[in-house]
UniProtKB/TrEMBL annotation, chain A:
Family to which this protein belongs: Belongs to the binding-protein-dependent transport system permease family. CysTW subfamily.
Any single GO CC term annotated in Swiss-Prot or TrEMBL for this entry: plasma membrane
Domain (ABC transmembrane type-1): residue spans on this chain: 257-480
Membrane topology: Multi-pass membrane protein
Subcellular location: Cell inner membrane; Cell membrane
Protein name: Phosphate transport system permease protein
CDD domains attached to this UniProt entry: TM_PBP2
Keyword entries, A-Z: Cell inner membrane, Cell membrane, Membrane, Phosphate transport, Transmembrane, Transmembrane helix, Transport
NCBIfam families for the chain: phosphate_pstC
Function (record text): Part of the binding-protein-dependent transport system for phosphate; probably responsible for the translocation of the substrate across the membrane.
GO molecular function, one term: phosphate transmembrane transporter activity
One of the GO BP terms on file: phosphate ion transport
TrEMBL record, chain B:
UniProt topology in membrane: Peripheral membrane protein
Keyword Membrane annotated: yes
Function: Part of the ABC transporter complex PstSACB involved in phosphate import. Responsible for energy coupling to the transport system.
Keywords, in A-Z order: ATP-binding, Cell membrane, Membrane, Nucleotide-binding, Phosphate transport, Translocase, Transport
Name of this chain's protein: Phosphate ABC transporter ATP-binding protein
Biological process per Gene Ontology, one example term: phosphate ion transmembrane transport
PANTHER family for this protein: ABC TRANSPORTER I FAMILY MEMBER 17
Source organism of the structure: Antarcticimicrobium luteum
InterPro entries documented for this protein: AAA+_ATPase, ABC_transporter-like_ATP-bd, ABC_transporter-like_CS, P-loop_NTPase, PstB-like
NCBIfam families named in the record: 3a0107s01c2
GO terms assigned for molecular function: ATP binding; ATP hydrolysis activity; phosphate transmembrane transporter activity
Subcellular location: Cell inner membrane
Length: 492, 265
């Protein structure tokens, strides 16, 4: 029975449970719903959820755990000498899985009977050719260890699947029976459902947190692998970024960090004044209808995919800057300071444009949170509007605005697409904003795209870069949230 | 107490400071002030009394155009300050508010130091030529606001860190630091203990020597103690306006009488 059918079965049983639970509760109260402890629907939900939740949970865990367990069992069957010189256990196991899959397909299509699939032998049949006929391509000839491991794999998987079906079905029916038996008019179904809802919410929240932890851990493992292969002093304190595949790469984060920070700085230089002034205009001067129209418009700007901004940088802003700062006597300024469209300035300006709505929308919220009484107090003393804004509203909103700017900075540091397209690929320390430079995110992309070998430091360095970036932006975010939150408390 | 006040006011009765004619105020479709006519005299304390929601604050805010900051608020009729229409397009509301100061119903100190709170108005209007003069203005205002002794050692502490009553007195001190000609006070004593209340009332009495003061209050005793003129508002109408002694001893309108004796409110 495929898993989908199992899920349908569970759902159907719970639907029946809902109706049955509801009816039983009503019957126990003699048909008078006022005599029940809870509303009739709660009895229904209690029975339905009792059938549904435990079985689905077990199903989910089982589906996750079974392949790992099976793999573990089967990989024990492969002797160390069966692993070829150039290969690893992992690669052999992926062969095993493919063969097992191929046999499954063969059985499904009727090319082999179940018995044949079990009894097939590598020294008698050319397994590779037979599976190839069915559209399952194998890289090399199937050796007998691999074939028997694959057969064992299939067998354990089939047993596990059967067991899972039985357990899940039993849990469904058991949950239904248990909850149904408890249903009577005095049973506090409402409180039980309430607890069930709570558990569900906690589960969702912890899933989000667990995923984050998982991401960090996986990065951490690869980072540790990287530092086994490459010295950490070079990574953190070196001065050159020069990966090569001869094995003597210099992989220092500092030139990349410099590029990242420089571009982010220029982006903030663009975004903060413009965003802040826009926010002041929107929250303090604009009439209701202008605001109702302009604010969503600004927020649409925030929804543009960053790759579009990247195109804008590459096709519009970069060439425009070259026209101003480059081309010698043909250029607008008659200088030849800029040769290519990609530069720190190009990426910084476009990233700044991307951040404007982010800064303005956050600052606007924060400025609006300053109580009207504050403004009234100032206006009542004969201050003008701009005096009020400069001397009362902005100082009161300052911590929140600083928080917004830090959030914007952390977005700038983590931004990828714009710098990939607009900043260039040369890692260096330079103060000239018209030169192209590269950032941490661009290097991560370039180290991981194309043919990669996950055992070389040139590839693994991406994870070390990634985790450094993560720590950097996390730190900025935590700081920003701390400041924003502290400021919120002032007026509550 | 109001007996002496009455004779004094009879002596001082010089000229009209603010005169309102046929004033109507609308908040969107709500008609909050209906056809109010009133003459507020110079060097006099005028009390506005009336049940909650009758429009006292609204009318008070008309007198220095603070209602301009509320989008949906619309004012018609004439309000003259020293004979000049304050709603005339020629009039700069910013300058008007410097002349007609206001203490709000809820204390609203700025999130700045106590010193900067008081110095805010004088700085904006350039009232002090140097730091020493500014210090002097701050000290004088805080003394008149009956809060100097409590804050003189912590002028650098934030004004928002004071207690509610202290904040209220800080706001009073802040309003008088700009030397307005008219001071509008919206329930200035609602958060104060009896001692601070007495001090503020003393201040109001002192201010009367040079300014015109309008005070909104829910305390009949306070109105009787500090004011020479009283206006009774009810449901947006100015029901009765006259000498405080007259209103409290011998009101003409039955609604005034029932409010003062505690039957409506
Ligand atoms: N900003 C506003 N928007 C809409 N309606 C308002 C606004 N301010 C006041 N009102 C309405 O105007 C009327 C008068 O309000 P106002 O604040 O002047 O009363 P008040 O006499 O000061 O009352 P209280 O003694 O409780 O302070 C009330 O009905 C109120 O609902
Ligand atoms: Mg009021």
């Amino acid at each position: 029975m495929p898993t989908a059918w199992l899920v349908v079965f569970v759902l159907a049983v719970s639907a029946i449970g809902y109706i049955a639970g509801r009816r039983r509760a009503l019957n126990s109260a003699g048909g008078d719903s006022r005599a029940l402890h809870s509303l009739p629907v709660y009895y229904g939900f209690n029975v339905a959820l009792s059938a549904l939740v435990p079985s689905l949970l077990v199903l989910a865990v089982w589906l996750l755990a079974q392949p790992m367990l099976v793999e573990n069992r089967v990989s024990g069957m492969i002797p160390a000498e069966a692993i070829p010189e150039s290969s690893t256990l992992g690669l052999v196991m992926s062969d095993v899985r493919r063969v097992a899959e191929g046999l499954d397909i063969a059985v499904q299509q009727g090319a082999l009977s179940e018995q044949e699939a079990r009894a097939i032998r590598a020294d008698v049949t050319d397994v590779r050719a037979r599976l190839g006929d069915l559209g399952v391509a194998l890289g090399s000839d199937v050796r007998s260890e691999v074939l028997s491991a694959a057969q064992r794999y299939r067998q354990i998987t089939a047993t596990g699947h059967l067991l899972m079906t039985l357990v899940v079905a039993a849990l469904t029916l058991g949950g239904l029976g248990f909850a149904y038996a408890r249903t009577n008019k005095d049973f506090r179904a409402r409180n039980v459902v309430e607890r069930g809802v709570l558990a569900l919410l906690i589960l969702a929240a912890s899933l989000a947190i667990l995923t984050t932890i998982g991401i960090v851990l996986s990065m951490l493992f690869e980072t540790v692998n990287f530092f086994r292969l490459h010295s950490w002093t070079d990574f953190f304190f070196g001065s050159t970024w020069a990966p090569n595949f001869r094995g003597d790469s210099e992989l220092s984060i500092l030139p990349l960090l410099w590029g990242t920070l420089y571009i982010s700085f220029i982006a903030l230089l663009v975004a903060v004044p413009v965003g802040l002034f826009a926010a002041v205009y929107l929250s303090e001067y604009a009439h209701g209808h202008v605001r109702a129209f302009a604010k969503p418009l600004l927020e649409i700007l925030a929804g543009i995919p960053t790759i579009v901004y990247g195109l804008f940088a590459l096709l519009t802003v970069g060439p425009a800057l070259v026209r101003v700062f480059g081309r010698g006597s043909e250029g607008l300024l008659g200088v030849d300071w800029m040769s290519g469209a990609t530069s720190v300035l190009t990426a910084g300006v476009v990233m700044g444009i991307m951040l404007i709505p982010f800064v303005s929308s956050l600052s606007d919220d924060i400025i609006n949170a300053v109580p009207q009484a504050m403004r009234d107090g100032s206006l009542g003393l004969g201050a003008t509007r701009s005096e009020t804004i400069r001397q009362v509203v902005l100082p009161a909103a300052l911590p929140g605005i600083v928080g917004a700017i830090l959030l914007a900075a952390s977005r700038a540091i983590g931004e990828t697409m714009i710098v990939v397209m607009g900043a260039g690929a040369i890692a260096k320390f330079s103060l000239n904003p018209l030169e192209s430079m590269t950032t941490i995110t661009t290097r991560i992309v370039s180290q991981l795209t194309g043919d990669t070998d996950f055992a070389s430091p040139e590839t693994l360095v991406a994870f070390a870069l990634g985790i450094t970036l993560f720590v950097l932006t996390l730190g900025l975010n935590v700081l920003a949230l701390y400041i924003v939150r502290k400021y919120r408390e002032q007026y509550e | 107490m109001y007996d002496t006040a009455k004779t004094e006011s009879a002596l001082d009765q010089t000229e009209t400071k603010i005169s309102a004619r046929n004033v109507q105020v609308y908040y969107g479709d709500t008609h909050a002030i209906k056809d109010v006519n009133v003459e507020i005299e110079d060097k006099t304390v005028t009390a506005f009394i009336g049940p909650s929601g009758c429009g006292k604050s609204t009318f008070l805010r008309c007198l220095n155009r603070m209602n301009d900051t509320i989008d949906i608020c619309r004012v018609t009729g004439d309000i003259l300050l020293d004979g000049e229409d304050i709603y005339d397009p020629k009039v700069d509301p910013v300058q008007l508010r410097a002349k007609v100061g206001m203490v709000f119903q809820k204390p609203n100190p700025f999130p700045k130091s106590i010193y900067d709170n008081i110095a805010y108005g004088p700085r904006i209007h350039g009232l002090a030529r140097n730091k020493a003069e500014l210090d002097e203005i701050v000290e004088k205002s805080l003394r008149r606001g009956a809060i100097w002794d409590e804050v003189k050692d912590r002028l650098d502490a934030p004004g928002t860190g004071l207690s509610g009553g202290q904040q209220q007195r800080l706001c009073i001190a802040r309003a008088i630091a700009t030397e307005p000609e008219v001071l509008l006070m919206d329930e200035p004593c609602s958060a104060l203990d009896p001692i601070a209340t007495a001090q503020v009332e003393e201040l109001i009495d002192e201010l009367r020597q040079s300014y015109s003061v309008v005070i909104v209050t829910h305390s009949m005793q306070q109105a009787a103690r500090v004011s020479q003129k009283t206006a009774f508002f009810h449901l947006g109408h100015l029901v009765e306006y006259g000498e405080t002694g007259q209103i409290f001893t011998n009101p003409e309108d039955p609604r005034t009488e029932s409010y003062i004796t505690g039957r409506i409110g």
